[in-house]
Design brief:
alpha+beta; 10-stranded mixed β-sheet; disordered N terminus
């Protein structure tokens, strides 16, 4: 339980606003075209000047606003009927200002480390109840038993562009993916690999979304 290590990044700032306490509920929202599109409650593991670590536990509920213009339609998880996170949960490691998180997954009855997932997304922005971001669909997955990473959802990313989800962002999203791939190819590791053996505090309750979570104005 607790943190196994700390990623160092000289001069990094975690952003404006207060820091979250370990064990505190942090609402992670996705903002699309200026509207709240999705939300889920996570648990703060660490919040330091150079690293924000959030845990999405099994059973954490998904929230989908009932109102809004929704120019790209309802969130795909809502359309698919997904109402909460399943499995062992996952960790999400964020360095300030970076357009991705490094997610940690586990699998099987022994909760074995499954791999690193490089989730391309907007840099997280703090709100009074948590953080805002937007998933960019395109990702990189490095299974624990593989010698090399693989790209994920390349065709789906192209479809999302055609749907108008990321106007003016396509080149920047691809560039971030290429940057991550180049770092991995060079043997760079900008996260602490000890997070693979991290375990949640068994005393933590399954978090829930607070009332009015979708009414808090999106961060800018």
């Amino acid at each position: 339980m607790g943190r196994p290590g700390r990623v160092q990044r000289d001069g990094a700032q975690a952003g404006a606003g207060r820091r979250f306490r370990p064990g505190e509920v942090v609402v992670r929202r996705e903002i699309l075209h200026g509207e709240v599109w999705f939300g889920c409650p996570t648990v703060c593991v660490e919040d330091s000047p150079d690293l924000l670590v959030l845990y999405l536990p099994p059973g954490a509920e998904f929230g989908f606003p009932e109102t809004g213009h929704l120019p790209c339609g309802r969130h795909p998880w809502q359309v698919a009927g997904h109402r909460g996170w399943t499995g062992h949960g996952k960790l999400m490691l964020h360095r300030p200002g970076e357009a991705h998180s490094v997610d940690v997954f586990w699998a099987g009855p022994e909760r074995a480390f499954a791999g690193w997932y490089f989730n391309l997304q907007d840099p997280v922005r703090r709100t009074p109840i948590g953080v805002d971001t937007l998933d960019h669909e395109l990702d990189i997955w490095w299974p624990a038993d593989a010698e090399r990473y693989v790209w994920k959802d390349v065709e789906m990313f192209a479809q999302r562009l055609a749907e108008g989800r990321y106007p003016g962002m396509a080149d920047a999203i691809r560039a971030e993916g290429d940057r991550i791939a180049a770092l991995l190819d060079a043997g760079e590791r900008w996260w602490d690999e000890a997070w693979a053996s991290w375990r949640p505090d068994p005393a933590w309750p399954v978090p829930t979304l607070p009332a009015g979570w979708d009414a808090v104005p999106p961060s800018r």
